[in-house]
Each structure stands twice: as C-alpha cells, then as structure tokens.
Specification:
Layout lengths: L2 H10 L1 H8 L10 H29 L12 H16 E3 L2 E3 L1 H11 L5 H11 L4 H4 L5 H16 L2 H9 L8 H12 L6 H30 L3 H41 L2
Antiparallel strand pairs: 1-2
Helix pairs in contact: 2-12, 3-4, 3-5, 3-8, 3-9, 3-12, 4-11, 5-11, 8-12, 9-11, 9-12, 10-11
Length: about 270
Amino acid sequence: MTSSRIVELQRHIGPLRERLGAHPVYQSLRSLEDVHTFLGLHVFAVWDFMSLLKALQRNLTCVDEIWRPVRDSNSCRLINDIVLGEESDEIRGKFTSHFEMYVAAVRQSGGSMAHIDEVLSRLDRGQTIHQALNAAPPAARHFSTTTFDVVKSGCLPAIAASFTIGREDLIPLMFTELVRDLNEQGHADTSILIDYLERHIEVDGGEHGPMAEQLLINVCGDDDVNWRHAETAAANALRARIGLWDGVVEAVRGHAAAPAANASVG
C-alpha cells in the first residue's frame, strides 16, 4: 500500500523529529526580547514556506496562459485548497496571507522585521535569491538557502516532502502559551500573534497537515526513487530547522550576556 511508504519515511526521520521536539529553543525564551529574537529568525521559515507552496502549485496545476487539464485532479484540488488558506486566509473579516499576518503580529508586539524587509527589498531591486539572502542572519540564510535549493531543483517529491514533513507541525502549543502569558502580563500587545499561532495550529492540524500528507503520497506513488528523494529532502529540511533553532538559542544567549558584559566594564 502506498500509504505505508509515508509511515516508513516518518520512521526513518523519527530521530530528527525527536531532536526537534527536545530542542532547548522554547525553554530559552523567557522574555519579550527573547520572543522577538525568535520571531525575527523564524519569519524566514514562514516566508520561504510560501515558495514551497507555490512550487507545488506550479507543478500540480496549470498556471500557463493557455490552460490545459492536469493529470492529477485530486492533487490539483488539494494544493489549490492549501494555497487559498495560506495566501488569502480570512482573518477577522479580512483576507491576508499567513506571512503578512505574521509580520503584522511581530510589528504589533514591538519586534523588528528589518532582516526580512531587507531581503525582500533586495529581491525587488532585481537581486538573485542567494544575493538577497546575504542580508539575512547566518542561521536564517542557511535555512532558506536549503529551501530554495529544493525549489530550484524542480524535484517534485523533494518539494512535497520539504513542504509536508519539514514544516507543518513544528511550533508546539507551549510557545502559544508563552506568548499568551506575555500578553496577559502586559509586556506587549501580542493579540495578532496569538491569532496567528492559534490559526496555524487549527489549520495545519485539522486541514492542511492531512492534505499535505496526501499530496506527498500522490506525488511519490509506489516509486522507490521518488520516496528516496522524499526521505532525503525531509531529513535535510529537519536538519535545517534544527540549525535555525540553534541560531535562535545562540542569539538569545548573546543578547542575554550583553548586559552582564556591559555591567562589568569599569
């Protein structure tokens, strides 16, 4: 059965998922400044996720000027449904992408989006993705480079696996609780961020997660080569996420050590 192949894939990458689940990143976030540090790096994952999404849409639907029927109408419907929610979700009576909602949430809470703003500005000025990513912090640059290398490879099983395995359920409920606590304590207005996180959990767990898994099954079929590409890409995506989380922990420790260092001067 094809469905057994994804179970096998998940078993093989289980140790990497366990490393992510036990990562110290969330325990290291204790203040609003720590949360802002996390958000400033994690926004790159929110952003480049959309490129994985659109790569799947380009491959599984017809977006050419002259329309032709697609071979797999089931996958076409699945990806179009996911695109609808991710690119133009209805939030509080307005339509917005989840990326734009995320950016608005960070700015509402007083965080900076300077790095992602500069990357997008460089792209608008005609720079290549690798040139533009030079403006990103090292951990985010490495993470997004891994993503765009998969996108540019054109390998559909790898793109689908990066999208499905690497991204859908990696922000735990504990982070949502931390943000809610900060909001209740009056440290900052994080109401949009809470809405984003709750919507993320609701949509990915109840809708997009199962849909993305079915997409991966459809794309790989019973082809051994496809599943090997998928497993390699999934493992690389998880390792890149571990690297991103390592970068958050390092950055949090860096700004936590700075006041102590300044206090010792003189």
